[in-house]
Amino acid sequence: MRNDLFQEAKRRIDRRRMNQQLALSGRLDEIGQKIPEVIEVRRKLAMTSAEISKLILQKNTDIAAGIAKIEEVNLQLQQKEKDLLRAGGYPEDYLELKYDCPLCKDTGFVDGVRCQCLKEEMQRLSIEDLNRASPLKTSRFEDFDLSFYPNETDPETGQNPRIVMERVLRYCRQYAENFRTDSPGIFMFGYTGLGKTHLSLAIAGVVAKKGFSVAYGTAQDLLRRIENEHFGRVEDAGTLETLLASDLLILDDLGAEFDSPFNKSTVYNILNNRLAASRPLIISSNLSAAEIEDKYTPRIVSRLFTQLVQMRFIGQDVRQLRRQRELERRKNR
To answer: Where along the chain do its domains lie?
Structure first.
């Protein structure tokens, strides 16, 4: 993964430790004003190591007995501090240094190995980098206008587009509101301009607000990134690892990518890995079911149509209808 992502992640971890140290300093000042006896106890505790060093340097001294006595006094002082804090209405551990990650104590490393908290911070940075140019905040459920979908039977499907899309909208809302890291995946397909990207982005917006990590991108862009990193054309930013590890992955416009063995293999890898790990993903495609079967391998087709919730979008191109409505509105001004 790129060195700049590691450096920024390490800076964030260091900042957490500094914030905790500043918070402790503030608590010490507070206790110094309200319970000064506690500060005196802590001063005596701080002298313990110096007393042990002095004891070791002394000749003809029973060092073991001396250390045992110092340790006994030390324990008494620790208990006195706890008693004073409790009597003053504070928790016993009020003056202990807290850590966001107790495992590495906010250093980012455990026994010289990167801690999980550092890896997760790098993952968050990678997702931020991936989504920087994406339209994640541009679509909301409230803006999905069902009036653009004909309220009459569609001759091609024999279904009422408005009723179908009302069900789709309802499901997507519920999916976003009840999202979990083991939620089922969704496969949205149908002609272009029917709202697949809109609803997948609306889901992403709600899920991201809940604190889950969301990775979004078009199949064409993401697969190009992965290919360039894989073959060393650009510095490895860990794009594939990011897509596999994010809480929710949205792979938009599947089928628009360049047709190559590498891309097909990568699509299968992403799909298979996330399904095996029970990590949800939303895939959208403008291809018909027949076109998907022609383009992809049976293993990919099988997973798309049997292991994801299928949503077929029907109706007329909403983008064109929206432009027509806007033109008519301007004419009638």
So the answer is: 3-117, 133-328
